[in-house]
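2024-03-11 09:14:02 DEBUG pipeline.ingest accepted 1 chain
2024-03-11 09:14:02 DEBUG pipeline.ingest length=161
2024-03-11 09:14:03 DEBUG pipeline.predict start
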Amino acid sequence: MKRVVGASRYLAVIGVIGFGVLSLVTFLWAGAKTVSLVDDLLAGAWKRNGALIALLKAVDLYLLAVVLLIVSLGLYELFIGDLDLPRWLQVGSFDALKKSVVDVLVVFVAIRGIEVVFTSPDAADGLMNVGAVALLIATLTFFRWRPSGKAAPPGAVDPPH
């Protein structure tokens, strides 16, 4: 029984593969958006604010792809085994994985807030949305820097601050 329960950790491979595939597809999607944006810019779209929104949406997709990749690699390291990754990407605990994801999400949310500023038809709505984005970033930052209250296991590596 102990052997079966111990081997159940390999169920995480489903998540590793799923997040890996989603990351790959999202990178391809972002690449397609980039090619489309460059084509539009060469056709004169650089003269309109819409080009900036298209650029920010492409950046959003790349950041989302990075988050998905970090989760895929982190799940593998936590449940399956070590990978040859740069030190800053190594995950030694679930808290370290969450913090890596939060770091990227802060930038992702900030970019979304900038998009809202440019696309909001009403200045008051835009300001309210930016305030909500600022509150979300503050909350994520607090979550990122608060101590978890648990000691990391020996050999666990947190990403650098």
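2024-03-11 09:14:41 DEBUG pipeline.report Residues 2-145 form one domain.
2024-03-11 09:14:41 DEBUG pipeline.predict end
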